[in-house]
Each structure stands twice: as structure tokens, then as C-alpha cells.
Amino acid sequence: MIDTLKQHITEVEKFSADNLEDIETFRIKYLGKKGLLTHFFSEFKNVSNDQKKEFGQTINLLKTSATDKVNSLKAALEDNTKQKASGRDLTRPGEPLELGARHPISVVKNQIIEIFSRIGFNVSEGPEIEDDWHNFTALNLPEYHPARDMQDTFFIQTDPDILLRTHTSSVQVRYMENNKPPIRTISPGRVYRNEAISARSHCFFHQVEGLYIDKDVSFADLKQTLQFFTTELFGKSKIRLRPSYFPFTEPSAEVDVYWGLETETDYRITKGTGWLEIMGCGMVDPNVLENCGIDSEEYSGFAFGMGIDRIAMLQHQISDIRLLSENDVRFLAQFKSSF
Ligand code: PHE
């Protein structure tokens, strides 16, 4: 008899059910009024005295395990129903977390800011919708000056005084108007030019312009600063300055960095010369200083400006500038960086 009881205990422990009917049938089988336990209890009187103790213990064990089983199965079933009702499957593995990547324009911009901040330049920003004064006139580009044609301009509606800035030199004007020398600032931002969109040029792009004004600032300071910059950003220290023209600087120059001619890519991007043009620069024209309320007898300074998009394209071998503004995640996800 005791063996039968033990067999039932094993069976009870093994039992499993996932619906109320099966659990109820199981409960009635063991714990019901006419169930097995009632039956076994009534057998108690027939058990010999020396077995009564063990029989009693075993029958109690069977009772507890049957009761526990019914309770735990019911609880599990309830949990499950709740989970289903909430519409969530809590057993489902988690979705992998996708880490975002910074836009290559931001990466390059931050690299440039970091390099210049090491030699004391702060960051200044200004509006993208500008007036004529800050974008042109203050920069030695009065109305009807032919050099205005160098930067095809978007005007806002019909007001020729309000426009989308064509360079961040406008921010430098604002900075000079509001700050006294010494000035060391770089101005990153988006600029607009009314140009046909192609793989090489877009109607908007990004610039970082720099301005340094103090007593006795010379062209040699400019050259040193630019060389420091190209060494830090590209790891290339060989530069050359070619005479050029900008209305707001005198003298003016175009800066080329020696890229090298080691690979086929070097050959292609430098058109076989090894040299790459990366920015414009010059000594700030005294007229510009005066326009911005700075005494040109006491102070001198240099300025430079470069396109971020072109540098990003160079660094990552991006062949079409339009990719930078299309926001295709397959393109953007390729740029993981700590900057
Ligand atoms: N503002 C010029 C441009 O947009 C760049 C530049 C800045 C040139 C400062 C010289 C000095 O092309």
C-alpha cells in the first residue's frame, strides 16, 4: 500500500497541465470528496500498527504535493493569461540596441574645433539668414562690387537686404562688432550658394572660418597656424600658399596641402600633382577691421575659411557630395567615431 502511495507521489510531481479543465480533473482525482486521498485515509484503519506511522506520513506527503501542484499550476496559468492580456510576450528575447553614428560633417567639424581649441580659439556661431551688411558690405564688398558674383546668393523673397549667408565670414563680422581684441575664434556653420547641384557642388554646404586679431599679428603667424592645423588633421605638414584674391583680406592666398602621390587614389584626387587645395586665407583688410569698430592702426589679424564637406569627402573617399545630405542610413551608419 505504501508503495502505491509513493507511486502516486511521483505521478503528482510529474503532472503538468496548461488549462483549467485538466487541473480540475487532477484536483478531483486526488483531493475530491470521493478522490484517492479520501480513499487512502479510509484504508488507514486496515494498516497494521507497525506501518501506521509511515503510512500516515506518506499519505500526508501525497496530500501536500497534490495541493501544491494544483496551486502552482493555477498560478502559472493566471500569469500566462495576464501576460497575454497585456499583449506582451515576456519570454521574447530583447531587440538588439542599435548605436547611432554621428554625421560625417559633424565628425569633421568637431575634429577641427578640437584642434583649434588647443591653440586658444573659441567657437562662435551666427544666423543663417543674414543681412547684406554682415555678409557683404562690412567685408569690403559694397553694393555693385563685382566680387559679389563670386558667391551666387539666395535672397529672401524680394528684399535684397535679407539673404542666406554665403559664408560664415558674416559671423566673424558679428564677433568683431561685439568683442574687443585679442580675438581668436572659429565659426562653423551651414552656408548657401545658388549653384547647380551636382556630385561636386551643392546649394548648401558647411564651412569653418577662423579669425585671429591682436597687436602685431603677421602673415608668418598665419602660416604657422595653418601648418599646425594640417599636421593635426591630416598628418601632413607640407603646405604651400598661392597668391589669390578675396575682397576682405589683403594679401590673400589659397592653401594647398601636399597629399602625396603614393597611391592611385592620391593620384586621382590631386589630379596627378600631389597637391590639394583646402582653404582660402589672408590678412584681414584694414577696411574690414574699421567697419567692425577695430582700430586698424593698432591691430592686425588673419582669417581663413574652409569647406567641411570637401574635407569629409577627402577623408572618407566619398565621391558624391549629395550623399552628405540624403540621410540614407546605410551611408550614415558607416561613420562611427569618438568625435
Ligand atoms: N569667406 C571665404 C569663402 O567663403 C573664405 C575665406 C575666409 C577666405 C577668410 C579668406 C579669408 O570662400
Summarize the structure.
By secondary structure, this protein is of the alpha+beta class. It has helices at 2-14, 20-31, 36-43, 49-85, 104-117, 132-135, 169-178, 219-234, 264-269, 286-291, 308-316, 323-326, 329-332; strands at residues 122-123, 129-131, 162-164, 183-192, 204-214, 239-246, 249-258, 275-284, 300-307.
**Average predicted confidence as pLDDT:** 91
Rg over alpha carbons? 40 Å
How many separate domains? 2
For this structure, what is the CATH class of the largest domain? Answer: Alpha Beta
Give your account of this protein's structure.
There is one protein chain. With 339 residues, this protein is α+β, with helices and mostly antiparallel strands. It has helices at residues 2-14, 20-31, 36-43, 49-85, 104-117, 132-135, 169-178, 219-234, 264-269, 286-291, 308-316, 323-326, 329-332; strands at residues 122-123, 129-131, 162-164, 183-192, 204-214, 239-246, 249-258, 275-284, 300-307. The strands form 2 sheets. A 7-stranded mixed beta sheet has the order 1-4-5-9-8-7-6, sandwiched between helices. A two-stranded antiparallel sheet has the order 2-3. A hairpin with a 2-residue loop joins strand 6 and strand 7 (249-258). It is rod-shaped and about 125 Å long. Phenylalanine binds at residues 167, 169, 209, 246, 249, 280-282, 303-305.
Structural key phrases:
339 residues; alpha+beta; BirA Bifunctional Protein, domain 2; seven-stranded mixed sheet; 13 helices; 19% strand; binds phenylalanine
